[in-house]
Amino acid sequence: MSGGEGGEGGQPRGLDHAAEAGRAAQAGLREVGPHEVGLRSLGQPNALASQFDFTDSSHEWRRLFAELLGTFLLVLVAAGGPMVNARFGGAAISSTALVVAPGMIVLAIILFMGAVSGAHLNPAVTIAFTLRADFPVRRVPLYIVAQFAGAVLATLVLVALVGKQGMAGLTLPGSGISAPGAIAWEAVLTTGLVSVILGTASGAQQIGAMAAIAVGSYIALAGVVGSPVSGASMNPARSLGPALVLADWTSWWVYLTGPLIGAVIAVGFAQILRGRGGGVFGRRAAQGTLGTGWLPGTPGQPAGPADGRGPRNQD
User: Fold this and answer.
1) How far apart are CA 137 and CA 139, in angstroms?
2) Can you say how many angstroms the Cα of residue 181 is from the centroid of all Cα atoms in its chain?
């Protein structure tokens, strides 16, 4: 082969160009990183960009606000139902409606903001996701603070609107039920609740909006069965927030220890059923994805820095 037909060492010029292109591509990868190259080459599709949003620390305030708001709404319904009922004579709301309502509001909350924070609304759920390696330990304290803050604020609003109504709004063991018995009930009920949450978040059983229906339905049915026994709280924030505002700490330890025991048991069951956690579906469900399609910018593409290098503040 003549020199005019090849490069140095007799290599065809086409191969030289390919090698140069490969070296340039490698240099580009080193400069901007594989994620940003992927975003550039594929036009920053929302499906690719949003899978990293749960690691974006700039959205943390949104997640915390979502947990506060979601827990506020949950306690507004769960504690507000009995308080309003007591305010109007004790027969304004049926007993079935009182125990089903929390499940319905949780279903609605998951649907409208689950993608923002994961819609834990419950310290036991946050801890369970963390034990499954689906949620980072560093974010646990502020999530729990936001949940308790939402519960306290909801109770304060209820007291301001309808006044204190004796023990209405508290979760308490039923008549003749001992504290250990109530703890056992709370542990069993919470085991089921957290098992449903972890299972629908794992990906293998994830079926979109049906996951919210599964969680809400479980809460409603567990309330029907367990409310007369232990109050069917399954949530330390829901119980201890009103206890703080109403200054009544009767059997408060039941609603701290029972749900936490149940959460740990549910994590063990998840390990048996599906192995270790930490998969992408579980992390998205636990941490929220937020998405980027809602950001101002070109329709179908997220807004980014002026240089077009993709989403900001990825850590």
Assistant:
1) 5
2) 30
CA distances from 41 to 24, 28, 32, 36, 310 (A): 15, 12, 12, 9, 11
Contact 241, 152 (CB under 8 A): yes
| Contact (Cβ atoms closer than 8 angstroms) between residue 249 and residue 243 | yes
Give the model confidence (pLDDT) of 229-246 as tens digits: 999 999 999 999 999 999
Give dist(CA 26, CA 115) in Å, integer.
35
- Could you tell me the sign of the dihedral formed by the alpha carbons of 115, 119, 123, 129, in that order? negative
Read off the tokens for 98: 């009182």
Instruction: Determine the straight-line distance between the first and last CA of the chain, rounded to whole angstroms.
Output: 52
H helix count then E strand count, the chain: 13, 0
Q: What is the DSSP letter of 105?
A: H
Is CATH 1.20.1080.10 correct for 59-287? Answer: yes
What the block records as the tokens of 100 is: 């089903």
d(CA 23, CA 1): 25
Question: Tens digits of per-residue pLDDT, 118-154?
Answer: 999 999 999 999 999 999 999 999 999 999 999 999 9
